[in-house]
Amino acid sequence: MADTLHDREPPRIQLANQPTRGHWLRYGESLGPRFWLKRDDHTGSELMGNKVRKLEYLMADALAEKATHVFSCGGEQSNHARATAFAARQLGMESVLILRTDDPEQPPAATGNILLDKLVGSEIVWISRPAWRNRNQLLAEQADRIRAAGGRPYVVPEGGSNALGSWGYIRAMHELASDLSTIASPSNPVTVVYACGSGGTGAGLVMGAKLFGLAAKGIRIAGVNVCDDRAYFLDVIGKICSDMESRWSLGANVTAEDIELVDGHVGAGYAKSRPEELMTIRDLCRSDGVVLDPVYTGKAFHGVVTELKRDPKRFGSTVAFIHTGGMFGLFPSYDLFTPLL
Ligand SMILES: Cc1ncc(COP(=O)(O)O)c(C=O)c1O
After folding, report:
1. What residues act catalytically?
2. What is the pTM of this model?
3. Is 218's C-beta closer than 6 angstroms to any atom of ligand 1?
4. 113 CB near ligand 1 (under 6 Å)
5. Could you give the C-alpha distances from 44 to 16, 182, 327, 328, in angstroms and in order?
6. Who's near 110: CB < 8 A, 6+ residues apart?
């Protein structure tokens, strides 16, 4: 087990390369604030992105439970499902992934994350969009199947976004506090911006910011939701934070005012891209040699750019954008990029 962050921190197994580095961007000089990028896309290669930080706690729990099979679910190109499958394999466990697709009878081509899921030998159960509503029940049924065959299942929820997984972003917030110590102050406020997809990253960041008293140091946290809406994520993030309080009594006292969500940038829908979002991905790549993904980071970053065009002071002196990974999800969209290149 690695070093301890907090006296109530649950057991963790080291999977991510951390601390991740941060650096300034050339992009967006005319937009108002400076952009600084936290490279959580560098947490690993097969295990790349924000999910790895959550899996450090979830997989420690799976090992403690002597699990033989790890289960999770997500969209067809789920980064979380891929990271879970690789973490399980690296730790000597099997994985079963319940993935949502338009027509389970005709599963999508094995590109991007799906190719990796198959390479690592994960069992994939394809389900339709209507069946997704019963995903937790399906996960429980699949787990029963393994139990009946003598295995020990461990279920990781969608996105790894529960109270345990969210510890990964309390830890990340601790790193960020140190990264930003010479950048942020009450007179030079910094907004840490992240893409919000299932709420666990946001819950950990908000809890961490409260625990480490970062508002007084000029650091504020804002999520750009890439699906659903502000009301949905206020509820989801609020619930994860209160679960963390009831399990570990951290005394962070997170309230709805602490949970800032920048709504209005879902665009064409979850995992659906508009040309302007893809152009922002292209432009950042051409200014700084940094690749965002179309589903999460590209959409959220484009949301920040759109907000700054309306109000350059919206996020203070610096936007500290967390690059939460997702690069494998870029490749299935190659045909959308082709006319822009
Ligand atoms: C690359 C990437 N960024 C951001 C997110 C959003 O994180 P969270 O699910 O914790 O809200 C996800 C997953 O949902 C992701 O795969």
Report:
1. 78
2. 0.97
3. no
4. no
5. 6, 27, 12, 13
6. 118
Model pLDDT, residue 5: 86
Q: Which residues share a beta bridge with 320?
A: 36, 192
181 with 127, same domain: the answer is: no
Nearest CA to ligand 1 atom 9: 198
List phi, psi (to 5°) of 39.
-90, 65
Output the pLDDT for position 3: 63
Residue for token digits 């994860």?
A: 240
The rounded percent of the chain whose pLDDT value lies above 70 is: 99
Ligand 1 neighbourhood includes 325 CB (under 6 angstroms): yes
Both 287 and 216 in one domain: the answer is yes
Q: Is the pLDDT of residue 245 over 50?
A: yes
Say if residue 60 is in the same domain as residue 143: yes
Rounded mean pLDDT, 126-152: 95
Per residue in 189-238, pLDDT (tens digit) is 999 999 999 999 999 999 999 999 999 999 999 999 999 999 999 999 99
Domain boundary among 90, 125, 160: 160
Nearest CA residue ID for atom 12, ligand 1: 197
List, in sequence order, the alpha helices (H) in the chain. Answer: 51-64, 79-90, 112-119, 129-132, 135-148, 167-179, 200-211, 230-248, 275-288, 297-310, 334-337
Q: Residue 62 is which amino acid?
A: A
Q: Are strands 94-100 and 69-75 parallel, antiparallel or unpaired?
A: parallel
Atom of ligand 1 nearest to the CA of 195: 4
How many domains does the structure of the chain reveal? 2
Does one domain contain both 122 and 184?
no
Q: What is the CATH number of the domain that holds 182?
A: 3.40.50.1100
pLDDT surpassing 80 at residue 1 = no
Q: Which residues constitute the domain of residue 119?
A: 51-160
170 and 279 inside one domain? yes
